[in-house]
Hints:
This protein is an alpha/beta fold. 42% of the residues lie in helices and 14% in strands.
Amino acid sequence: xxxxxxxxxxxxxxxxxxxxxxxxxxxxxxxxxxxxxxxxxxxxxxxxxxxxxxxxxxxxxxxxxxxxxxxxxxxxxxxxxxxxxxxxxxxxxxxxxxxxxxxxxxxxxxxxxxxxxxxxxxxxxxxxxxxxxxxxxxxxxxxxxxxxxxxxxxxxxxxxxxxxxxxxxxxxxxxxxxxxxxxxxxxxxxxxxxxxxxxxxxxxxxxxxxxxxxxxxxxxxxxxxxxxxxxxxxxxxxxxxxxxxxxxxxxxxxxxxxxxxxxxxxxxxxxxxxxxxxxxxxxxxxxxxxxxxxxxxxxxxxxxxxxxxxxxxxxxxxxxxxxxxxxxxxxxxxxxxxxx
Length: 340
């Protein structure tokens, strides 16, 4: 039975990563203690400007709305300051998660070793790289092709596919191909400053267990984090002086996710709240599956509400896991597989 697993922040909670409700407070606190002066300053400015509310969705949404409103010649100075704050917020989010990802992820390790099967797909809205580390250790995933786009120069197959629809802490957008100085040429039409896919930092490759990797590796120069921030309005492109860029990359990931959901006989949704504001995710998960697809919902107290959403969308086989959260479901699934 082909299975697509859909994971949200609740699945990574056991590995030390925050839920969305706690992410804002944790991120701003991390920025305030970051040992580079610009980052505590940016955090304090955000707190002073937008108040003490630490809800990450409120913060990102309000910040983006202010930036959009200031996109005029008269608001250029304030626009630049808010844009810099947003950039530092994103950079610190990556660095904060790189601090957390040194912790063990036992439920992911068990999932990788005992539950997922070749041909299965994982769709995740999480930024962290703890799952792919455990999948790689178990021999179930390879970084070269496992993210749904080519990272390695060799066509090394991956037994499973991991589609990170909001980006990943270990992806970077290399600006102008890593050029650092001097004259360079922008190729292609329309011209692109960002290229067609992310690169990965050598330190992040090493964390995943790859020490001799050749391919789309970050070698220096300008770079941006490849993350879709958790605001209420998510835009899957970047505005640049060349126009909107990277839209085709996000479309590539989302189209593969739609194909996986549509062909799967079984969907297991863990730790993802499927809220009305995530319209694109709801379209993917509620409209793309076949009516006969079996769906298991593992979302704690939110499970019945989410199950009702699937039923309202016309799916006929919905099961709610009443035993807790992702790590509890993993234990139950492993125990079930061991029964004679």
